[in-house]
Amino acid sequence: MTKRVLTFASGPYDRMQALFDGTVELDGYALQPRIIQRPVELFSRMLEHREFDIAEMSLTHCFVLHGKPGFDFVSIPVFPSRMFRHGFIFINRNAGIRSPQDLAGKRIGVQGHQMTAAVWIRGLLRDSLGVNLDSVQWYEGGVNEAGVVGGETMQLRPLHAIDTRQIGKDQTLSDMLASGEIDALIGAFIPRSFGTNQNVVRLFAHPAAVEKSYYQETGIFPIMHGLILRREVFEQNPDIAGLLVQACEQAKQRALQRLAFSGALAVTLPWLMDHVEETHATLGADPWPYGLRRNRPTLEAFGKILHADGFTPEVLKPDDIFVGDSL
């Protein structure tokens, strides 16, 4: 029997490698990988052109676009990208910011207000650190390159008014932070001026310690991206959602086994074994869980942050967003 071919677009992650090379198969289907490094490019191609059958997608868009006209996809509880974000708050040392609370009323750059990294950062600033962001002036634009890939396709706006302005087409937020035209920068990218301009520093000088403390207090390892599947494929065979979760879980487990193999290092990190041991000590033997059961606190927290940010009229529940929870 000929297997149906499905295109599968994702970043070049070790946790997806076994699906890319066919070591792990999706029962009844043949996957054709489309490996794309830049997330916003991948997202915009999926949202604008429906270019793939299965694709990695911003968690913000999984939530906010759920049930909206034109969002012809279902979301799957597989999370290809996760990242703590305390280390992605950069400041100009001359802006008078000595503590997180000093960000109130400042000029803060962000590539896109809706980007999941920025949503998480605003949430941790408000909820964990008590920062009042109501009077912040937001500056949107490219961090290291002028312009933003994805443009209007990716843009989502809060339901309430915020003080937002677009930077010039030839400007970058990195340069503006270095020159003092903005006071701080949040998001997913490290500005090029960090490490090259003495005025650009992290808000938290040792973010890993703060992030571990945050995890121990909240149990949250922030999710950046989920997976989405074309709705017509799902409706033709609803079982595919659960099969996809299970296949991704198998691929991830293979990646974890490779990382733990001490005979030769799996990636070009000299102290990889130290990283693995430290990660397991902090996050457990499976630090990258899929499915709703182990991710419910994280997903529920994200739903609350999106609502507080004004992206949703009510707090959306994970069970209403995701299908195929087979773990």
Topology:
Elements: E1 4-10, H1 17-20, E2 29-35, H2 39-49, E3 54-58, H3 59-64, E4 73-82, E5 89-92, E6 107-110, H4 116-128, E7 137-140, H5 151-154, E8 164-166, H6 173-179, E9 184-186, E10 200-202, H7 207-218, E11 223-230, H8 231-236, H9 239-260, H10 272-283, H11 296-309, H12 318-321
Parallel strand pairs: 1-2, 1-3, 6-7, 6-9, 7-8
Antiparallel strand pairs: 3-11, 4-11, 5-9, 5-10
Helix pairs in contact: 4-11
Order of helices and strands: EHEHEHEEEHEHEHEEHEHHHHH
Overall body shape: globular
Query: What's the alpha carbon Rg, rounded to whole Å?
Result: 20 Å
Quickly give the structural class. alpha/beta
Number of helices: 12
Ranges where pLDDT stays below 50 over 5 or more residues in a row are none
Classify the beta-strand content into a percent band: 15-25%
The overall average pLDDT, rounded, is 96
Total number of β-strand segments?
11
Task: Please estimate the helix content.
Answer: 25-40%
Strand order of the largest sheet: 8-7-6-9-5-10
Termini separation comes to: 28 Å
Main beta sheet: 6 strands, mixed
What does the model show?
- With 327 residues, this protein is an alpha/beta fold.
- The protein is built from 12 helices and 11 strands.
- It has helices at residues 17-20, 39-49, 59-64, 116-128, 151-154, 173-179, 207-218, 231-236, 239-260, 272-283, 296-309, 318-321; strands spanning 4-10, 29-35, 54-58, 73-82, 89-92, 107-110, 137-140, 164-166, 184-186, 200-202, 223-230.
- A 6-stranded mixed β-sheet has the order 8-7-6-9-5-10.
- Strand 7 (137-140), helix 5 (151-154) and strand 8 form a beta-alpha-beta unit.
- Helix 4 (116-128) crosses helix 11 (296-309).
- The two termini are 28 Å apart.
